[in-house]
């Protein structure tokens, strides 16, 4: 049976808890202890989620004016902290709109479904699928307004971007996690074009290979989004003291597809010996003219 979400008197709660917020939810997510306290770890988590919400809320508010209820898909949802808190703070008081959580771990999906049911959060759906399969899944609508991915592992952020492009998302809010794909390529190819330059020092040590791999991946992601018609901002999610994976990429659809971004993207892939990633990861970024012509000639034999 659904329970009516309740809120405790705010004066007994930590100041981080907002008026009207479901205390039951915060306890279920172990953000609040049973006696209504916040520990250091949950304070950090809540701070991250609020920081993200500050970017997401205005994006969601813009959408209903365009005649449709807002939809949001969260990739690599985990325990769905982000989805639940956004629902509680934004969707709960509305009549329509829906949040979809995409998560590969079945037990987390089941837990989230049960929690949403208990709280009466009726417009939340949890799908036990990978981010890569989400675009083709019939449980999701043809269009999604906002795509989020908070620390979705490895290439799941790339899959979330591909999903957002397919679903014509108006905005994507991404906090990438560790990334191994580009680092593995750097190790394998040794970025041939750059290997004799001092720049090769940037990835000589394994730790640096991993870091520059992540950095390069995020740069490529931003260029790809710009090439696909999004304006992109990159800031910090929270201070360095809270998390090492704190790059926040916010992309908003403008429709202006930047050819220069596509050209830079392909140039970077070429310089770093990453050309083999182009077709899978960046299929919608057009090759610059001479390169496209050379490819056509090559294909024609
Ligand atoms: C580090 S956790 C982050 C969870 C949540 N977003 C958060 O910040 O609390 C990453 C989650 O992504 C899920 N995941 C990893 N790869 C995925 C994929 N390709 N598609 C969907 N979920 C994925 C993992 O099972 C895990 O629950």
UniProtKB/TrEMBL annotation:
Protein name: Methyltransferase
Methyltransferase domain span: 44-185
Any Pfam family hit: Methyltransf_32
Methyltransferase keyword on record: yes
Species whose genome carries this gene: Xylophilus rhododendri
GO molecular function, one term: methyltransferase activity
BP GO annotations: methylation
UniProt GO cellular component terms: cytoplasm
Keyword rRNA processing carried by entry: no
UniProtKB keywords: Methyltransferase, Transferase
InterPro entries linked to this entry: Methyltranfer_dom, SAM-dependent_MTases_sf
């Amino acid at each position: 049976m659904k329970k009516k979400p309740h809120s405790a008197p705010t004066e007994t709660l930590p100041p981080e808890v907002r008026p009207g917020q479901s205390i039951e939810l915060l306890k279920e997510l172990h953000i609040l202890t049973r006696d209504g306290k916040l520990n250091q770890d949950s304070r950090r988590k809540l701070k991250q989620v609020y920081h993200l919400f500050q970017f997401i809320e205005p994006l969601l508010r813009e959408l209903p004016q365009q005649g449709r209820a807002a939809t949001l898909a969260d990739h690599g949802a985990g325990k769905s902290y982000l989805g639940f808190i956004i629902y509680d703070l934004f969707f709960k008081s509305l009549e329509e709109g829906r949040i979809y959580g995409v998560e590969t771990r079945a037990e987390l999906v089941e837990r989230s479904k049960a929690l949403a049911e208990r709280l009466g959060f009726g417009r939340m759906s949890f799908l036990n699928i990978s981010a890569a399969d989400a675009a083709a899944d019939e449980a999701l609508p043809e269009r999604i307004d906002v795509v989020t991915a908070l620390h979705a592992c490895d290439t799941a952020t790339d899959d979330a971007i591909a999903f957002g492009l397919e679903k014509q998302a108006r905005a994507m809010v991404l906090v990438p996690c560790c990334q191994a794909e580009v680092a593995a390529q750097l190790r394998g190819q040794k970025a041939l074009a750059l290997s004799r330059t001092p720049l090769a020092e940037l990835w000589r040590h394994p730790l640096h290979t991993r870091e520059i791999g992540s950095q390069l991946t995020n740069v490529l992601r931003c260029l790809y989004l710009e090439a696909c018609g999004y304006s992109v901002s990159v800031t910090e999610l929270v201070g360095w003291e809270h998390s090492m994976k704190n790059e926040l990429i916010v992309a908003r659809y403008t429709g202006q597809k930047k050819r220069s971004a596509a050209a830079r993207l392909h140039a970077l892939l070429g310089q770093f010996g990453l050309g083999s990633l182009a077709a899978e990861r960046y299929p919608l970024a057009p090759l610059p003219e001479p390169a496209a012509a050379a490819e056509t000639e090559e294909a024609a034999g």
